[in-house]
Protein 1
Amino acid sequence: MQELIDRKIKEMRELGVVNREFRIWLEQSDLWYWLYSSLRIMGEAVEKRVIVDILDGKIVEDAPIDAYNFITGYSAVYKDMRSCAEMDSSADVKLLRRWGGMLLGYAPEFRADDPVVYEWNHIPPFYKNIAAETDGLLRRAVQERRVTPALKWAAMLHLEFCRLYPFGKDTPVMAGLLLAYCLIREGYPLPSLTVGDIEYNKMIDAYVNKGEYEAFEGMLERSVLNRAEAVLQLNRRAAEVNEN
């Protein structure tokens, strides 16, 4: 599936961004799709219509305040991620904490205890080693990307970050930020992940307890493929309009 996705991404790059309208739509829809699935994974049922309206700057009275802040904060994070990707910056702890601060209103700190993560039936590694282990994970990722297919690499990095649980209760959000940046940096349009909170937690459980990553990797591949196909079709249409 990775080869099929890469062919579609290559065609997208060869077509380029054919007009201003398509570029604006692509960036806006990146956020629509990613935020919709991110909130669903967090257990927040927010309609796509509400997300679109909030991103357009409208006041949505029935939107939960936490979801409202998350959506508006992610818009700023997305722009910063794109700038970092253009500079070919690797994700590190400093960048993650910056994005976490923009999104959450405070810079997440490394956990200072060893909690039980009930959603994943998981006791994460000893907290006193967590800063060094997280830094090591992100450093190794730079080398591993050179020998690992892009989506498998992104999936494994996300899963291993969850296993470390470095930022305590903020870890799921931070893991989502890390995955989003991996996709952006690799040139993929952000997809809507095809799982809800229950399925997602089962996939993380399967990895942290059994080392099983295939379900999450396959889900990520299908999600990116669906999104790439939709973007490519619209880009072709935009190119045809431009020619006429």
Note: The mean pLDDT is 92.
Protein 2
Amino acid sequence: MDQNTEQNTTTNPVAPVPTPVVQPPQTALPPQLPPQKSNKKNLIIIGVASAVGLLIVVIAVVILMVALLSVSKADYQAALRQYDNVSSANSSLVSGASSLTYSVDSSTDTTFDNDMSGIEKDIAKIKSENERLGKLKAVSVGDGKKFYDAFDKKLAAYVTYTSNLATSLKNSRSALKGCKAAQDATTASAIAVVLKNCSDSLKAVKDLPDADYKTFIGTVQSAYEEYAGIATELAGISDPYGAQYDQYKALRDKTYAVQDKISDAKKDFESNSEKHSDETSPKEAANALRDFLVEKSIK
């Protein structure tokens, strides 16, 4: 017997049928079953109560969702202020990256290290400020989330690209500084030694996470290795404009070809770097997000 039937049996007891002393044949009746009509009524009441309870829950959820999805002007203004913090950190990073690029082989170690430290701090700040922005209500729901997600994705790619390039510059700087010593050498034999050392140092550089820069360093390393061999042969020529002129001219032409190879590698790196910098630039997504926040802040 189920619970409802048991309950109805308790609340609507059936009077027991007296048992006669002598039970006449075919006259004894079994006890009556509990009325089914009352049970149906109880089920209907329970069903209505459940439906009302469910409706109340649904209404409460709808009210909660409306509250969560409703974004005020103050919410948009707060997001706009936080966006400006991200933008400010990025401006500092752009300035520091430019300084680092120019100082990689020309500044003192202290200046370079300070520039590198500044970039690392700027990158960390961009990440933390953007994380704070992403937690704000104005960019967590609706169109705000759509604009922010696009910006966040581009910003992540941009920060990764900048970080990889800075790391590549840092890890190759010592080798590149050694290569500059060739400018101070005055004889072919001295140049050959410097270029061989430069080539060996560049070959030893391992951690170059920026693909364009890694390709550039690989090309330069190979060119300097070839250049060192040419310089060694030039060192053995004692009469370049006499009996050994043809040999000297051939080596000179090889030198020009190697120099062109290095120059082309630099141009290719700059071109590829500019291309990939544009591809990862968050500028378009950033402008779209800021325009949206400005518009919503003044409505």
Note: The longest helix spans residues 142-179.
Protein 3
Amino acid sequence: MDLGEGDIDWAGVNRALSKSGYSGWVSAEVPGGNRQRLADIKARLDRIVGL
């Protein structure tokens, strides 16, 4: 199953995790790529989780 933009309220998830004292990293497994592709994936992840 693929998750996309708008599928999860990441800002709400992050607030709930912060209230519980949790902090962590976001990671994604991707099948390689050049710097431009990886920068694009990072930008999309930042936008999705509201960073």
Note: The radius of gyration is 13 Å.
